Every structure is written in C-alpha cells, then in structure tokens.
Amino acid sequence: MAGRRELGRAVRSLNAATVAAVAPPEVLADLAGRVDALAAELAALIPDTGDRPVARYNDDPDLPKDASALADRMPYDMIVGAANPVSPPMTIEVDGEKAVCHATFPAPFQGAPGCVHGAALAAAFDIVLTAANMIAGAAGPTVSLTITYKKPTLITRPVVFEGWVTRTEERRTYSQGRVVQDGVVTVEAEGVFAVVDPARIASMHRRGATGQD
Q1: What CA–CA distance (Å, rounded) separates 209 from 90?
Q2: pLDDT (tens digit per residue) in 136-148
Q3: Tally of domains in the chain
Q4: Domain range for residue 158?
Q5: Model's pTM, two decimal places?
Q6: Bond from prior residue into 89 cis (ω within 30 degrees of 0)
C-alpha cells in the first residue's frame, strides 16, 4: 500500500476543498484544467485487466483475521478504505463484543445544510455492523438494514459508531448499532445478515485481492 494511502489522503483533501472553495470562475476553470491533467496522468497507469474487476482487497496472510484489521483488508472501501478518497475514512476498534468506529465526515458528505447525508450514515452502518458480526464470528452479506434518524448528525465534527450482535440463528445474524455525537444518540440501526461459510467469503475476497499491496 506504499503511496496509496498518501494519494487517497491528498485527493480527499482536494474533494473537500472542491466543495468549499469560493473563487472567480476563471480561477476555478484553471484549477479544473490542472486537475484534469493529473487525472489523465493517473489514468495512464491503470492496468488493462480486461473484464476482470480492479483489485479491491488485501489478502496479506500476515494481517490479523479479526475486525480490527477490516480497514487494512479493504483499503479501497468507500467507508474505511484509507486508499479510497471517497472514504471519510472511518477507523475500527474492538471493545469486548462491540465494534466501536470513529469518523469525521467532511463537507463532501453534506446532505441537509451542515448535516451528514443519511445515505452516508447508512453506508457506514453496513461496515460497523459487519465488524460487530466479525467479532461474534457470524459475518456475512447484508440482507436488510433499517436506519432510524433521531437527530441531525453534523459534518466536520467527530462521531462514534457502535455496533453489536443481538442474536444469531442458523442462517441469520441480527445486529444493532447507534451513532453518538457530542454525547447524544443521533442515529440507530438494525441489520439482518446472512450466515455464510467463511471459506466462501475468503474465496470471494481472493478474486479481488490486490496480491501485491
């Protein structure tokens, strides 16, 4: 991943500045031309993979198998991937049987004025609850995700996501979570996940593994 996190961070800063900058049209047009040139330079480095999707996962055998390494295993994920400039990014910690995730959503994630877009919060919960499922040894694809928005969640201010498993059945895992900002619960979530053989999930990841990164 050498250089990829740095590039992701730089483009993330560019994203934030793009939606917040105030400048004359001619200045913005000049900047757009310079960014286009950089994009073309990067595009020339994209390998020709034919119909095979671009790698998204890291199958380094030295990485831990638990939820704490989820971000390292998915470096291009749109929520936790430090190499993806679309991500906040969000960090993941394990606290007993609970997944605790920290993030600060910058200006590009704005929905209502000053507030984090609900879709971004829902996407984050998909990862948070997946991390909780991994802690419980019951991870699998999402079947359904129900989000309850209780209060506005503000951009550019730290938030804490918490996720935990409430019960498991033969083919389903049931999880809950919440967002806490400034000591107030702003969002709650409930998720249902399919229970899948870990070997099958591993094979899916290998099909998109970075191999070298």
Answers
A1: 21
A2: 988 899 999 999 9
A3: 1
A4: 1-213
A5: 0.84
A6: yes
